[in-house]
Every structure is written in structure tokens, then in C-alpha cells.
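Protocol step 4 of 6: record predicted structures for both targets in the notebook before any analysis. Target 1:
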Amino acid sequence: MTHQANTARLAPRPYREVRHLRASRPPEGAPFDVTVEISEAFRLADSDDWACAMRIVGLDPGHRAEHGRAFFGVDPMQAIEHALFMAHLELELAAGKLGLEFANGGAYDPATLFRRPGDGRRQA
């Protein structure tokens, strides 16, 4: 087990669901749910560093781990930022293989990370 997985076991529960998507495997795969979840940031024991656990439920077996993986930072904001950035990268990789859309409708384009679900406009 990796350091990220071991540290994630220390994360406070419950995780917060931060993004709900629907995915399908082309060409005619049945749709399935994908949910990005993160923990609250937590201070590492005997350290000034912080961590935040992240998991993507439903994407693939590597993300079905109960605790996910931890990402680290010098403060809570940086730990959360790293977790969300990695979630974004993993969804970007998955989008190349899967059809991804927001659970409430609208195509999911990882390049538009900060747009609202169902909103086709790109935000700066």
C-alpha cells in the first residue's frame, strides 16, 4: 500500500461529494455514475503539513478503495487544491476513453473545470 493510501486512512469521515457525473463506455456502453469525493483537510501527526483524501467512485477499480489517496500541502487550502487538481487530471484522462457528462445534464469538458453543470459557456 502506498503512502498516499495509508495516509488517506486517517482522513475524517464522511467524505464530501464534490462532483457528480455520468459516464459510458463507447460505443454503446450502459451509463454509470462517477462521483468525486474529498475529505476535510487534516493535519498530519508530528508535522506542520496537511493532507486531504480524494477518491473517484465508479471510475475504475483503482478508485474503489475505501479511503482513496491523500494529497499533501503546507496548509489546508493547498492540500485540498492538490486533491482537486489530481481529480481534474484523472477525469481529463478518463474523458479520452469515456463519454462523461454532468449527472444533471450537459457534456463534461475537463477544460472547463469551473463552469456550472449544463452551462455551455466557458468561464475565465
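Target 2:
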Amino acid sequence: MDAKVFFGSTEAETGRWTERRSPYDGRVVSRAADCGAEETHKALEIAKNATKAAKASTLSQRCSWMHDVAEKLREHKEAIAQTITDEVGKPIAFARVEVERAIETVTLAAETMRTMHGETINTDAMPSGRKATAFFKREPVGVIAAITPFNFPLNLVAHKLAPALVAGNTVVLKPTPEAPLTAYKFAKIIIESPYAVKDALSVVYGDAEVGSALVGSDIPRKISFTGSVPVGNIITKSAGIKKVSLELGGNAATFIDESADVELAAQRCALGAFVNSGQVCISLQRIYVHAAIYETFAQKMAEETKKLTVGSPYDDSTFMGPLINEEAAERALGWVRSAIDEGARAMTDVRREGTMFYPTVMADVTDDMAIVCEEVFAPIVSLVKVEGFDDACPRMNDSPYGLQFSVFTNDLKLTQRAIDELEAGGVVINDMPTLRFDIQPYGGVKLSGVGREGPRFAIEEMTELKSVVIV
């Protein structure tokens, strides 16, 4: 099936196509219309012209629109899940979970927007003031440029489109080149809804040329990007005076205290490190383990990892499928070999077959090894022995990233310290740092990004406050 361009509500072809091959078996699974700067500028103009109608639409209409989209996603759940698996190799069981999460995200956006409102202000609260009727209200920013990655090709699109559209904005979406058909199917549902605002959503496909045209244009009032730090840096320098949200990389870490439930910690850490083949911004990469339980935890972690089923993403029982491409698998193997050469110990078999890289637990890792310093974005987790939280905390924080961290402990005082002292956008107690509820604010500090997602928090960033005084 072809992923066509949407110039607003109108489907079109460019006459040029790019094939997408399955990362699992190499089959051609989709084609996307090639776009360049010309198509991008056309989409932006359409979005600009549609802002008046979008702003004038009623909240009731826009909420009905999102609820209709959620309903259609549920009706087409299996077909969309299969498309996710085809394009990015995500195991089908997890692809179905992603569709369910997208349904919740869209629904949450509608329900949240119903309760978003301004406030009245007491203008006579200070001596310099006087009595007046004053309040502020929220208004849509206008045109939003949304750029999304491959690892959650449906739900991360939903996290941008649903808040933006329900708030009365228009959007030009550039989805990941790795999953154009997933985005196309979602966009088609949105655009063909009987409640849709005409031309509120456009979709263009491509890579750097399209992204540069989106970011450099004066038309978007806001850029919402999820992806790598280098691209985030380019966007920051190129965007000009716009609102910018960046959800970038991570190097998630956890501390296993001697008071923790070791078996539970190993089970949850195996899930957090290897779900989606480690291709998650909050994938668990570093585990700092109290010396008193280090060897016990290392053995348990290896045991839990060996239980995971690696294989065809089309098998319901598969936990882990391929990496996104051969380059990613080769890079993962390089990380592991480098660490072993530097003295680390592999607790599981180091095994690569094409794009398949088997889950790997590395023990005796030190802070100066690249495998803990940089974001690996692969199914590799490193164990580091520490003397306690006082030893672990500064080492966890000694990273350019700060997306999510966690601590496993039954010590209440340590829990409070972790919440206060860990430098991250999110802290999880007694579970993996990969835990994310879509209703929560999500985003990081330092190089992990700027701004927050989650329907309520995205809506806040996709609206402007207008102050009003009546005297």
C-alpha cells in the first residue's frame, strides 16, 4: 500500500516513490511519496490558510473528532498493528499495545481539552491596581510542525497530533521515513472523520530537506520534535523565534539498593532494558548495584534475560524482534566488543544474526567505558558495582542526558533522597525507568530535551495565553 501525501485534506502523489523494506526479512512493505522543499512549502501554506477555520471550530466538534478517531483506531487495530510490525519490526504483541496506547492518548487529549480553561485575576490585589474585570484564556498557537521517530511510529504521532488538533491548531506532520504507511493510515483516519476541520492536517514524507523546510519556514509558530540530539541541535539553531519542544535522547539508569527485592528488580530490569529491542529513549542502559547484592543480582538478571523470546515479530510469543537496520545491529556488536576489550564481562551470549541482536547483559562495567557514557539504543544493559546510593547517585547524574531514572529500594528515606537528588525529568521508585504512563508529563533535562509531552502538558505548550482586561 502506498503512503500518499496529504496537502491538507486532499490526497496527492508526487510521482516519486521510496520503498520501505522490513527490517526482519527485507520484503518491500510500503512505499512513500517522495517530498522535497516544494511540497513542504505547499503543505505549510495550506496549514496557514486553515488556521482561521480551526480556531473558529467549536471545542465540542474537536472533542467529537478525537473520540471518532479513537473509535476508528480500535476498529482498525489489527491492520495498523500489522503495519507497525511490517515497517519497524516491532513484535506484534507490542504493536497491538502501541495501538491501544494511541487510542488512550487521543481520548485523553479530548477529555483534557474539555477541562482546560483560563482564570480570573484580582486586579486590585496590589496598591497600584484597581478594580476591573480581568482574565486570561488559552488560544491555539496556529501552525505546528511535527516531526516523529521510528520507535513508536503511531503513539508518538498521536502525542503530537491529538493535543495540537483538539486545541484548535493546524499541523504539518513529517513522520519517520522508516514507517510512512503507519502515519498515513493514522492521518487518513483523522482527515476522513466527519468531524474533521478541513485542511487542519497535512502529511509530507522525507528526511533532511523536508525537515529543514519545516523548521526554517516562518509559517509554523511551534516545532514539536522527537529524535536525536544532533538533529535537535540543528532545529534549535535554525528555528528562529518559535516555540520549540524537543524530546531527545536518554541514558536511563537505575540503582538497586541492598534492601530491594532482587528478584522483582531483575524481572523489571530485563523488561526495561530489552523491550522494543532497547530502541526506547528511556530504555534501561545502566544498572548501579549495591556491592552486597551485586553477584546475586547479576545472576538473576542473566537468568531473566535468557527467558526472553527472540524471533519473528509476527509470532505472538516473541518478546524481541530485529533492530531497525543492519547498521544498528553492527553498532550494537561494536559496543559490546569494545566493552569486553576494556575488561567487561558478558553474562549472556553475544549473538548477532543480520538485524537481530540478542539481549546482552554486561557485568563489571566501569564509568569510563563508552557503553555507559553514550546512548546505545540497542538491547544492551550494563551492570556497575557501587557501595551505596551515595556512590551511585553522582554517577547516575554524571551524564549529558536526564530523561528518566529509577531506584529499587524498601528504604523510605532513600526514596525521598532519590526523588530530590536524581537529575532527570522523571524518577520511578521500585520499577524500571522505562515506565511511562501517557497521562503524565514526559520529557527530560540537560540534553534530553526541552518541554513536556503528555496530552495536558502538550496542550499547554501548543496554546498561547491571552490576557484580557475590561474596565
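Step 5 preliminary note on target 2. The chain has a mean pLDDT of 97. The domain at 2-248+448-470 is CATH 3.40.605.10 (Aldehyde Dehydrogenase; Chain A, domain 1).
Proceed to step 6 after PI sign-off.
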